[in-house]
DNA sequence: AAAATCAATAACCAGGCAGTTATGAATTAT
DNA sequence: ATAATTCATAACTGCCTGGTTATTGATTTT
């Protein structure tokens, strides 16, 4: 399984992505705080956090009976890489086409 | 539904993402050509192409009885924007923290 | 004209996944 | 000690989605 596979899968769900966005925007949050704005039950939030953690997108920190989660922005790197790679392929093909046209023009 | 929602959803499936990658790498391809390497049936490929098209990630061009598909690299822009935005949030929080520490240090 | 090819659609099926409620384990408050 | 809080897990459910085969429409080929 490609490294960005988990990444895309994790971010595909709107609820889950919203949780991650919240963590990016507002920094470390407890499960309870996240649940308040998630629009789904606490177990659902916990499950989403589990998926995000599995994908390396979040870290958890236990403190007493509450768990604090925070975004790991670095985990988005493979996504950036993938996008650049696709753009690179595109550009290469464009360059080759340009080259071909230049040759034909002569 | 956010503009990047479709995007993430479309790219989440490995088979579908592979088809898109192929189009980026090798340029315009017919459904038949894509089917040869997809590892799934032709109808499955057609369905994936439908989803990609819906998300604006591919264009189709009919020529006789065959349909040629090509990647629309520009459609990845919202994804890049989203990533930058997340990184931006992160950076802002970091800056505020840095600022706070500087004040405390005095 | 008849046969073959290409791709889209229809109809169906199985598995996965996001959601729920109920419960348990650990910690904190009374 | 007891009660309350916080989160994770278990068990279940319904739907969505990715896959299949069968078929049709459209175009080429023979």
Automatic annotation (TrEMBL), chains A, B:
Coiled coil: none annotated. SUPFAM superfamilies: Winged helix' DNA-binding domain. Residues 1-91 form the HTH arsR-type domain. Gene3D superfamilies: Winged helix-like DNA-binding domain superfamily/Winged helix DNA-binding domain. InterPro entries: ArsR-like_HTH (IPR011991), HTH_ArsR_DNA-bd_dom (IPR001845), HTH_MetalResp_TranReg (IPR051081), WH-like_DNA-bd_sf (IPR036388), WH_DNA-bd_sf (IPR036390). The keyword Transcription applies. Keywords: DNA-binding, Transcription, Transcription regulation. Transmembrane segments: none annotated. It holds the Pfam family HTH_20. CDD domains: HTH_ARSR (cd00090). This is Metalloregulator ArsR/SmtB family transcription factor.
